[in-house]
Amino acid sequence: MVVLLVMRFHTRIRISGLGMDDYLCALAAVGIVAYVALCLSAIELSGGRHLWDIPLAKLTPTYVRLCNILANVYMVTAMLIKIALLIQYRRIFHPSPVANLLLWFGIVSTALIYIICMCILLAYCVPRPEDYPLGGWVSLSYSNRCRMPSAYVVLLSGILGTVIDIYVLTIPLAFLWGLKTTVKRKAGLSAIFLAGSAACIFSIVGVVYRVKMVTADE
């Protein structure tokens, strides 16, 4: 990832200069590194195991707080990646008023969806002053308040994230053939964009597992 990011920056600086999409890519890269580091920390604290396999002693305030931070870092990073792609498409298809409108719709919708999801998590899944005398992050009052909102945010963000991924993939394919270039080049560019369908497949698989997680008895 770092190598590809450096190559992107080097090429953009030499050809046309950096744009907003490049800066957002850099921020997203920082988010990815932070997310991976937090995941490794969570694994050391019993993250990734079934709940029935986690000893009660492992459910510490540090672990619960880390899970909360992980969820927010993931959503910020996902938002930055999707918006960076949409801004890049806007630079490519800027002459088309219809493409410009659709891309702005995607940018605003993506930002609103993830910001609303993060606000819900912050509203329900951060301990309140009255929770701390009862255990703070591991108090029963905190757990009861956070459990269902966080589950539905995880599911909703997964579903809407998948819709956005499909939207991001569809726009360039719809307008690509209107570019003034050869048919061979258009076909090659279409193949490159279609490679992004893998992200949509992973998103759909992720939604399936999120549904199982939310509806599971464990």
UniProtKB/TrEMBL annotation:
This is Rhodopsin domain-containing protein. Belongs to the SAT4 family. GO terms for cellular component: membrane. Keywords: Membrane, Transmembrane, Transmembrane helix. It is found in: Membrane. The keyword Transmembrane helix applies. Its main location: membrane. The keyword Transmembrane applies. The chain crosses the membrane at residues 21-43, 63-89, 101-124, 151-177, 189-209. It comes from the Eukaryota. It holds the Pfam family Fung_rhodopsin. Residues 7-212 form the Rhodopsin domain. It is a multi-pass membrane protein.
